[in-house]
Specification:
This protein is α+β, with helices and mostly antiparallel strands and 151 residues long. The chain contains 3 helices and 9 strands. The chain has one domain: Immunoglobulin-like, CATH 2.60.40.2470.
Length: 151
């Protein structure tokens, strides 16, 4: 038979552990390139994220995004690639205050596909970089944004 005091101690200890883990997330699980995410222009972001690598333009990467967007706060985007052994997919927006928007690390069992929503500050090129077999490949698409969403 569980006594009331023992049950209250267990509940308090469990809720304290959950609250602590929510307030202090574990940084070890995340791979974060602070210099690339803090970069203020696309060239800085690319050189910080892909040091000593040359981007190769590829027609095997398909960006699906509407060419004209009313509100830059919500821009749906899909990226699909036919490249083999895709390791990651990154999205950059050239004229955003911080051009590196997102990076998705994919397991070897995944297809080269992502779908997400991004923010855009204004009319700009969206650059997608797909790393396949350690080599970064890229393609871009111009998007007209009428109301910026980064403010």
């Amino acid at each position: 038979m569980i006594k009331r005091r023992y049950l209250l101690k267990l509940l308090f200890a469990g809720s304290s552990a959950i609250a602590y883990s929510l307030l202090f997330p574990v940084k070890v699980l995340a791979r974060w390139n602070e210099a690339a995410y803090a970069a203020e222009n696309i060239n800085e972001a690319l050189s910080a994220y892909y040091p000593n690598k040359q981007l190769i333009t590829s027609n095997k990467i398909n960006i699906t995004v509407r060419p004209e967007i009313e509100n830059g706060a919500v821009v749906p985007i899909k990226v699909n690639t036919d490249l083999k052994n895709v390791e990651s997919i990154a999205i950059f927006v050239e004229k955003n205050p911080n051009p590196l928007i997102a990076n998705f690390d994919l397991s070897p069992a995944c297809k080269g596909f992502i779908s997400t929503r991004i923010k855009m500050d204004g009319p700009s090129d969206v650059l997608v970089v797909v790393v396949s077999d350690g080599q970064p490949y890229s393609t871009s698409k111009s998007v007209m944004v009428h109301a910026g969403g980064c403010g």
